[in-house]
Amino acid sequence: GTVLINDNNYYICAMDKGYSKDSSGKDFAWLISISRLDPTRQVEIGDMKTAKVDERNKPLKTTDTQGLVIETQFLYDPETHVFATFRTAGGVNLNLLKSFLVRYCDVKGIMFAVIPDKDGIKDIDSMVKGGKITYKIAGVSAIQNIKNPNASELKDIEYADQMGGDEMEITISAENNNLKPKSFKDKLKFLFKHSDDLELKKLRAEGINDNGVETPLDLLQHKLKTTGNLEYDNIIMTENAFDFLDTEYGKVYDFIK
Q: What digits encode the pLDDT tens for the residues 222-238?
């Protein structure tokens, strides 16, 4: 089917259900492939029989309504609200995927956030005293998309945005590790959660953990990761991307839920 998102036409190419998170076969995550038409990109065909390499490719003539079709596959779990995408060059960007989820998956007030691994969460929660936080943000204007009027963690970034700043780097410290523990942890968790949106280049902290040990943290090393093999024959097909997304999600589901 064809859907209209922000004045652009997109095609729902395929939909399936992934059951790797539930061996009983009852619970599933949606696997969806959508494509967009890019009439601005040149479509070429090649002829290997042509002797001259620089003459093998030639552009096809297209009309204003024709162009290169680029597919994007993604997984969405309506239970955990986890979203994972199979990235392709020139594919549908995250803002348009947000619009798709809001409209067709009934997700309200959507905001993408990084999932921390178990060590990152544990390290933050184990802190009983805060001594220093240093962070560098390269995407200050992104604060407009994650605004929460009740969050004190936003105030410094909002001020930088109001001043017209693009980047900011701040260090907050206190002698004898006397930063307020709750505020210290809340700030770290907020910045880590939105590290992709804010284009965080640095997030480091120092404090005392619950063992009484002064501990340095480099939290950008603690994004949840999984690795696996993408299996395909000659060409990566939609089902190959679906299988990969479903398999990798199944590996981390127990931790995420």
A: 777 788 888 888 888 88
Distance CA 114, CA 219 (A): 12
The pair of structure tokens assigned to 156 is 């410094």
| pLDDT > 60? residue 257 | yes
CA–centroid distance for 103 within its chain: 19
Where does residue 101 rank: exposed (0-12), middle (13-18), buried (19+ CB within 10 A)?
Answer: buried
Q: From CA 28, how far away is CA 93, in angstroms rounded?
A: 25
| 171-177 long-range Cβ contacts below 8 angstroms, 24+ apart | 171/132, 171/133, 171/134, 172/132, 172/133, 172/134, 173/131, 173/132, 173/133, 174/130, 174/131, 174/132, 176/131, 177/129, 177/130, 177/131, 177/206, 177/207, 177/208, 177/214
Map residue 250 onto helix, strand or coil.
helix
